[in-house]
Amino acid sequence: MKKKVSMAVGGFDTGGGAGIESDIKAMESVGVHGVGAITAITSQNTLGIREILPVSPKFLASQLSAILEDFDVRTVKTGMILDADQMKVVSDLLYHKPMVVDPVIYAKDGTKLIGDLDAFKSILLTKARVVTPNVPEAEALSGEKIRSVEDSRRAAKKIHETYSVPLVVVKGGHLQGEEVVDVVYDGSSYLVLKFPRIEQRHTHGTGSVFASLMAALMAKGLDEYRALERASSLIKDAIYSGLEIGKGVGPVDPMARLEIEAMKYRVFEEMREFADFVERRENFHRLIPEVQSNLAHGVTPNYVRGLQDIATFRGRIIKRWDGRVVVGLPPVFGYPTHTARLLLSIIQKGETADTLMNIRYDSTLVGIFRKIGYDVVEVDRTKEPPHGEGKTMGWLVEYVYSEYGRIPNVIYDRGAVGKEAMIRFWTSSIQEMMDSLDSLLKEWKP
């Protein structure tokens, strides 16, 4: 199998949060083979940097030469390059490669990582195809104070004009506001990208991963703007899935999108197995209410961001007139069904809910749930206030949580005017769901 190759040049992070480790992970996550040349070995963890050991310019040149002699390197991403001698080596050997420069001036803990900023500007920045500074870095490169999006526009233009960088991306995460606003300038026009701010403490390596994704996507043949658009989407997943490791600020997860896609495939296959289970079980039709049933099944709960990560059956689980049960395949992600909304609301309360189903209400079934060890509560649907379509499941979770301080596995109601009585229950795996349904069918003798 052949793959495109992209090179990362930067430091080695002993905590695995940034540096060429995260660069190569990011490149591999989009199907590009990542190679790396180390400029320094750092002694660091999630709490900060303790020590930096630079490699000699001669050894850096040896690494770069070894890579270039053997690999068809399509693009380069640079990170921490400490001094003018290292910068000259990189410039001399890689000037002919499209280079995405992440100007790593300061570490997350404030440690200064570029000893000679003027050399960086004159030697390396002038060779960049793309530069991706955050606000403090853009201030250092442009000399402009940045307090607003308009300031970011001025800084981007000044960096472009001063150093002839074809594409400048000033990332706006450090600015205040509910949205993160990135400003892109190419010498003729601005592009302003707006994203909802993700409340996340663990953001170490964000800039490193973003620049690496851009370089890798450019290596695959995407132009700078298409690579930027795709990298911006992928970095949101990486930030959202920030890793709670260590005692300090953890890293973003550069593999997040790949992991989510793999989980979705698993969900799809497990739901097909569940459909086979349902259609083969004798008397399963007895569990299905008049409004029919559906199953909601999601990716691992801490990766769930919204309905796009939860699947339900397109055609529900239907009881036929002759007692047969038919599952309306295929499973689809993102459908705003009652079961999907309820599962999402439960996950958002911090529960490890993976799978949820609605079945008919019967007092005997409630008793069996208690007998097999489930936490069971009743909800009075007559207390539900009037609200718009799609709000019932959110209200159900908020009501239960306010009343009991938890979200039990089994929530049932006896119905109300125009509302069928129902049992809704969630489990931490689809296998547990099938085992529980088996127990209900064995114990229930209507």
UniProtKB/TrEMBL annotation:
GO molecular function: hydroxymethylpyrimidine kinase activity; phosphomethylpyrimidine kinase activity
Highest taxon of source: Archaea
Pfam families: Phos_pyr_kin (PF08543), ThiN (PF10120)
Keyword annotations from UniProtKB, A to Z: Kinase, Transferase
Domain Thiamine-phosphate synthase ThiN: 270-437
CDD domains: HMPP_kinase
Single biological process term from Gene Ontology: thiamine biosynthetic process
Domain Pyridoxamine kinase/Phosphomethylpyrimidine kinase: 13-253
One cellular-component annotation, GO: cytosol
KW NADP (keyword) present: no
Entry protein name: Phosphomethylpyrimidine kinase
Organism for this UniProt entry: Metallosphaera yellowstonensis MK1
